[in-house]
Structure formats: C-alpha cells, structure tokens
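In pairs, describe these two lines:
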Amino acid sequence: TIVLTKKAPNTKPIETIVYETLDFEEDVIVQLNSILYKHHLISVIVEGGAQMLQAFIKKGLWDEARIFTSPNELNKGLKAPDIDGEILVEKPLLNDQLKILLND
C-alpha cells in the first residue's frame, strides 16, 4: 500500500505501508507518475472525481477508458470528463451502454 500525503506521519512505520509525500503546490500528476515509476508500478486504475480524471486525460496519461452510459437522465451533478479515443468496443450491458476507448 502506498499512501500519498502532504506530510509523512510521525508514527512507527508499518511494514506493508509506504508513505510518499506530495507537494500540492506543484503538478501532482507528474509527482504521482514519478512515485509509481519508483515503485515499479506500470498500471493504475484511476477512479477519481471529474477533476482527477480530466487531469489524466488532458495530459494523455491513459491507455483505456471504460464509459458506462445509462438511459436515465441526471439533471444535477458534475458533467463527465471530456475524452476522445478510438472506439474498441460498444455494447449493451443490461440497461446501460458500455463503450471502451483506446488512447490514439
């Protein structure tokens, strides 16, 4: 487990947890990628909010996106991030539609 934090805790280290500090005044995505590389992680699933997802999309730091669309309309809430890519799969899934995009 890697915990990303502004300041490492002053507690006794736990063997299975690594603390990595981030400078939130700098580009967090760049720092995150450096940390992932440092720990030999080459794949990550981003399930963040709209801003986090859009940050990865804007920088082109994605290979595959899975988009589920419902026939139900939501009249409130945040707009989904904007993303374009090559459509790999488009298929119904129960009452929803699944679209898998690849980064060009």
Summary: The radius of gyration is 17 Å.
